[in-house]
Write a structure and sequence with these properties.
Blueprint: E1 3-6, H1 13-24, E2 27-30, H2 31-40, H3 44-55, H4 61-74, E3 81-84, H5 90-102, E4 109-114, H6 117-125, E5 127-130, E6 136-138, E7 158-159, H7 166-180, H8 182-189, E8 193-197, H9 202-215
Parallel strand pairs: 1-3, 1-4, 2-3, 4-8
Antiparallel strand pairs: 5-6, 5-7
Bound molecules: adenosine monophosphate.
The site of adenosine monophosphate (AMP) has 17 residues, from helix 2 and helix 3.
């Protein structure tokens, strides 16, 4: 089943997507990860989007739709795709519908992860990941068991995102409310929307998401 995880930055979309990849053999398609990879490898597109991402603005629909099209036409996902951070605008949502039709697939359900803004600030400013295996951590909510070493792979190479600061978070939240939140109504009208409480514990959120998928 193909699903969209919809929610503001810090709602836990990436964390829950990783869990679904492990438990349901799904493939995570995160446009944020794809754009960060393009920046890291120094492609022309990566250079073009760097300043936009650091400021917390949205990159153009054309770029992200192109990235998703490339993945959908070249990747097989036995358990389905998880769209994480895409679509973020109505134009992207329309494009996703067309692309899924083109590859003979459909959208199973859209899961809105509800969280309040106050929780997002501390979630975002405290988060970091292991640069070697991608395991996610948080300064207070989930520090590594042994300081400085990844619980999962033992690596010492922790990273924080350049845009995980209060200033760009404000811009990212504005972009979410202005451009992305209309998708809640868009998918509700299509009968595809389900909502979960994103403030519950990680395990409870996972259970709500798999429950929503099983009901879809
Ligand atoms: P994320 O990792 O999903 O928080 O995305 C990080 C940044 O990448 C965003 O703040 C945007 O600048 C850009 N980005 C990621 N996905 C999209 C998208 N679907 N549309 C526009 N910009 C995006």
């Amino acid at each position: 089943m193909n699903i969209i995880l919809l929610g503001p930055p810090g709602a836990g979309k990436g964390t829950q997507a990783h869990r679904l990849v492990a438990s349901r053999q799904m493939v995570q398609l995160s446009t944020g990860d794809m754009l960060r990879a393009a920046r890291k490898s120094g492609t022309e597109m990566g250079k073009k989007v760097a300043a936009i991402m650091d400021a917390g603005e949205l990159v153009t629909d054309e770029i992200v739709i192109g990235l998703i099209e490339e993945q959908l036409t070249t990747t097989t996902a036995p358990g389905g795709f998880i769209f994480d951070g895409f679509p973020r605008t109505l134009a992207q949502a329309d494009a996703l519908g067309d692309l899924l039709d083109k590859v003979g697939q459909s959208l199973g359900t859209v899961i809105e992860m509800r969280v309040d803004d106050d929780a997002l600030v501390s979630r975002i400013t405290g988060r970091f990941t292991c640069g070697d295996c991608g395991e996610g951590y948080h300064d207070t909510a989930k520090p590594p068991a042994r300081e400085g070493a990844c619980d999962n792979c033992g690596g010492h190479n922790f990273k924080r995102r350049a845009d995980d600061n209060e200033e760009s978070l404000k811009v990212r939240l504005m972009a979410y409310y202005r451009e992305t939140s209309p998708l809640i109504g868009y998918y509700y009208a299509k009968g595809k929307l389900q909502s979960v409480d994103g403030l519950a514990s990680m395990d409870e959120v996972s259970a709500s998401i798999t429950g929503a998928m099983d009901r879809a």
